[in-house]
């Protein structure tokens, strides 16, 4: 039996365990080592104001075949209830930190009319065409993987899909080449990317396109799972029969006599193969144990040099004051093209008891009480969280291998160019396919 250690119990780790069980069956003993006290990685829910709210890894897209197939296999479906709006304005806005650049109702022709009036029909069509073209190219990965294809490194995968150019240039350059106006890029596209990645249109083009597609520019719909997105990863690990060890922060991985020794605080074991399914950072910016550095010489060259973008989440029970937003009620979803107070704001529920709305702010820095006084002066409760949510997605970043060394695999390799729960799952499938092929190649012939 092949003993396999998977480091990390988020989207990549659970997908790797699930795929390895499918490929290797009972030939594999799978042990998942998770630094934190829960499964899910950056998919996380907390209790706030009487509700249970998603605060990270919040949404999936209807085109996410790996996540949707996995959810169906473990008996999970989309949440059926939309957020009740109450007295809140059913509109989407773009805010530049001083004034509302766009305010569009979300129903019927009024939404399109507002977008066309601000950005022009031609620019919107070109932006959508870019999103659709790149998403169609990406979607080829599913049929290729299902047919048994796998790639040694990220560069080879992107080449096979015709996406190498998109990964090597900033989104702004792709938009310029497509004839999309700077206003459309700087306001609409940047607003989406500040909400999704806490980054702007200087982001790598492929990651930017994925973000725009996730916002609906390539069609489809967004949703979360009714029992919480992290529940998917819990059930995948259980279905895979993996032994999950929480509170086990791995500190080192090193070769030993043709196998791999994995060390953690207070212990260690030797495995036939190791799948690293955690972000790789040389110098974590925070105390999140899931991002702690792992001492491993073969992995060292692939640490994310630019680090991870710190995201601050502030949940507020209360109604934003019109005085903070041009004197008008705030839309229930607000993107920002500038301003440093926050990067997005959205209605996520209503408090049990008070009936007040619950809003979620994303920001680069922690929102102080003084800042909240400006936007939500009458509030009942506040919760603050922060974590290193996304790599800084630099255009042309080094593209790591999925097989780092014999017996050592990187399930999060695609995070060099894009970071979503779905792309993590695709990345993990590729690493698992390489590992399974290596196991079969090493098996003695009967």
TrEMBL record:
Q: Which InterPro entries match?
A: FAD/NAD-bd_sf, Prenylcys_lyase, Prenylcysteine_Oxase1
Give the UniProt keywords, A-Z.
FAD, Flavoprotein, Glycoprotein, Oxidoreductase, Signal
Q: Does the keyword 4Fe-4S apply?
A: no
Any transmembrane segments, and where?
Answer: none
Q: Which molecular function term from Gene Ontology is one that the record holds?
A: prenylcysteine oxidase activity
* Cofactor(s) listed in the protein's UniProt record: FAD
Q: Where is the Prenylcysteine lyase domain?
A: 112-439
Q: What is this protein called?
A: FAD-dependent oxidoreductase
* Gene Ontology terms: biological process: prenylated protein catabolic process; prenylcysteine catabolic process
Q: Does the keyword Secreted apply?
A: no
Pfam families attached here?
Answer: NAD_binding_8, Prenylcys_lyase
* UniProt family annotation: Belongs to the prenylcysteine oxidase family.
């Amino acid at each position: 039996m092949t003993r396999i250690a998977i480091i990390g119990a988020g989207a990549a780790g659970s997908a790797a365990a699930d795929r390895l069980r499918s490929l290797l069956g009972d030939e594999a003993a799978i042990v998942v080592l998770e630094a934190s006290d829960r499964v899910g990685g950056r998919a996380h829910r907390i209790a706030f104001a009487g509700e249970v709210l998603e605060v990270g890894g919040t949404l999936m897209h209807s085109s996410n075949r790996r996540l949707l197939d996995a959810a169906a296999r473990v008996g999970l479906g989309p949440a059926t209830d939309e957020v009740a709006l109450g007295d809140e304005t059913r509109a989407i806005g773009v805010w530049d930190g001083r004034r509302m650049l766009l305010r569009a109702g979300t129903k019927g022709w009024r939404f399109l009319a507002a977008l066309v009036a601000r950005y022009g029909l031609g620019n919107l069509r070109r932006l959508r065409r870019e999103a659709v073209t790149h998403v169609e190219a990406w979607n080829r990965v599913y049929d290729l993987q299902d047919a048994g294809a796998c790639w040694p490194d990220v560069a080879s995968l992107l080449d096979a899909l015709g996406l190498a150019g998109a990964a090597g240039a900033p989104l702004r350059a792709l938009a310029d080449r497509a004839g999309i106006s700077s206003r459309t890029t700087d306001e609409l596209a940047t607003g989406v990317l500040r909400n999704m990645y806490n980054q702007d249109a200087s982001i790598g083009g492929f990651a930017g396109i994925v973000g725009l597609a996730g916002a609906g520019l390539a069609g489809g719909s967004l949703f979360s799972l009714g029992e919480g997105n992290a529940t998917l990863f819990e059930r995948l690990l259980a279905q895979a029969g993996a032994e999950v060890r929480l509170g086990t922060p791995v500190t080192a991985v090193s070769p030993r006599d043709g196998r791999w020794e994995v060390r953690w605080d207070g212990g260690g074991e030797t495995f036939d193969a190791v799948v690293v399914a955690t972000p790789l950072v040389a110098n974590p910016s925070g105390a999140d144990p899931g991002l702690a550095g792992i001492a491993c010489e073969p992995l060292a060259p692939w640490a994310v040099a630019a680090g991870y973008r710190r995201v601050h989440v502030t949940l507020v029970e209360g109604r934003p004051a019109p005085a903070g937003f041009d004197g008008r009620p705030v839309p229930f979803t607000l993107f920002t093209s500038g301003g440093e107070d926050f990067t997005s704001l959205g209605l996520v529920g209503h408090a049990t008891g008070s009936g007040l709305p619950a809003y979620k702010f994303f920001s680069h820095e922690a929102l102080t009480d003084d800042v909240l006084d400006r936007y939500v002066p009458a509030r009942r409760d506040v919760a603050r969280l922060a974590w290193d949510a996304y790599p800084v997605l630099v255009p042309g970043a080094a593209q790591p291998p999925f097989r780092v060394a014999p017996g050592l695999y990187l399930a999060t390799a695609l995070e060099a160019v894009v970071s979503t729960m779905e792309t993590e799952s695709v990345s993990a499938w590729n690493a698992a396919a390489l590992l399974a092929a290596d196991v079969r190649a090493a098996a003695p012939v009967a």
